[in-house]
């Protein structure tokens, strides 16, 4: 009873919502996006630098294509660009065909249930139009109270739209939401929406986040709640 009392008191004082980016936070699909863009750049015989690879992180498909084409973008018509993006997506879909629950990144399967057990609603806020099939392959689609994907907003990260839609779907005010992100654009999007941002992965990339952790396995609900006590 004492134990459940402790949990209950955290529940009532928590009063926040959690929004998770997918690629690079929940699952290591970031490496497949990167590989698919690299193959496209190789086909086009244009360089694909580390800086470009990082700049595509979190960014929607057409904006990522613009990053990959860089100074070569002017050589392609809009129709050709749409075809290139489609080609990249075909390669990406091939690469993710074999995804299983074993591809989930550390902590996805423990932090989300721990937050939910405390009454904290959890959503996915992903730029990817492939987010739902990926979550289904992982067998964790049912774990989230809302799944917001690349089909649900107009302006991609660093605009806050994806996270604002997620916040509204879980019925939590933006200022009471925390976002888990591995991308610079995602940290900016969270802050643009007035949300807290937990940076996951590489501290150099998620600079400016409110809390950093290598993986979701290194984050506890108490640490998250503390972000709202500041
Ligand atoms: C984001 C990835 O989650 O989704 C980006 O970090 C990707 O790399 C973006 O470009 C869009 O993905 P998709 O699957 O719609 O092409
Ligand atoms: Mg990501």
Mind summarizing the main beta sheet? 6 strands, parallel
Element-by-element helix/strand order: HEHHHHHEHEHEHEEH
The hetero compounds bound to this protein are: 6-O-phosphono-beta-D-glucopyranose, magnesium ion
End-to-end Cα distance, whole Å, is 30 Å
Radius of gyration: 18 Å
Shape: globular
Q: Tally the helices: what do you get?
A: 10
Strand order of the largest sheet: 3-2-1-4-5-6
Low-confidence parts: 1-13
Mean pLDDT: 93
Describe this structure in words.
- With 230 residues, this protein is α/β, with parallel strands linked by helices.
- 46% of the residues lie in helices and 10% in strands.
- The protein contains 10 helices and 6 strands; from the N terminus they run H-E-H-H-H-H-H-E-H-E-H-E-H-E-E-H.
- The chain has a 6-stranded parallel sheet with strand order 3-2-1-4-5-6.
- Helix 9 links the parallel strand 4 and strand 5.
- The radius of gyration is 18 Å and the shape is globular.
- Bound molecules: 6-O-phosphono-beta-D-glucopyranose and magnesium ion.
- Magnesium ion (MG) binds next to loops.
- 6-O-phosphono-beta-D-glucopyranose binds next to helix 2 and helix 4.
Keyword list:
10 helices, disordered N terminus, 6 strands, alpha/beta, binds magnesium ion, six-stranded parallel sheet, 230 residues, binds 6-O-phosphono-beta-D-glucopyranose
Write a short abstract of this structure.
With 230 residues, this protein is of the alpha/beta class.
Question: Which secondary structure elements does this structure contain, and how are they paired or packed?
Answer:
Blueprint: H1 2-14, E1 17-20, H2 30-44, H3 50-55, H4 61-69, H5 78-95, H6 108-117, E2 122-125, H7 131-138, E3 146-148, H8 161-170, E4 177-181, H9 184-192, E5 196-200, E6 211-213, H10 221-227
Parallel strand pairs: 1-2, 1-4, 2-3, 4-5, 5-6
Helix pairs in contact: 2-5
Bound molecules: 6-O-phosphono-beta-D-glucopyranose and magnesium ion.
């Amino acid at each position: 009873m004492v134990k459940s009392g402790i949990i209950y008191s955290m529940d009532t004082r928590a009063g926040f919502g959690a929004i998770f980016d997918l690629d690079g936070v929940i699952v290591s699909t970031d490496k497949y996006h990167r590989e698919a863009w690299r193959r496209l750049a190789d086909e086009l015989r244009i360089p694909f630098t580390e800086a470009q690879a990082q700049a595509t992180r979190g960014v929607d498909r057409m904006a990522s294509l613009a990053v990959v084409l860089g100074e070569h973008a002017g050589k392609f018509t809009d129709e050709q660009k749409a075809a290139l993006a489609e080609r990249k997506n075909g390669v990406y879909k091939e690469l993710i065909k074999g995804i299983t629950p074993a591809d989930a990144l550390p902590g996805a399967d423990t932090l989300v249930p721990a937050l939910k057990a405390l009454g904290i609603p959890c959503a996915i806020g992903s730029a990817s139009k492939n987010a739902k099939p990926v979550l289904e392959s992982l067998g964790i689609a049912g774990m989230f109270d809302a799944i917001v994907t690349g089909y649900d907003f107009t302006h991609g990260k660093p605009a806050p739209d994806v996270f604002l839609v997620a916040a509204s779907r879980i019925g939590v005010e933006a200022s009471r939401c925390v976002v888990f992100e591995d991308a610079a654009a995602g940290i900016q999007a969270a802050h643009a929406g007035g949300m807290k941002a937990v940076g996951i992965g590489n501290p150099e990339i998620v600079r400016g986040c409110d809390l950093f952790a290598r993986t979701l396995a290194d984050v506890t609900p108490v640490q998250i709640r503390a972000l709202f006590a500041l």
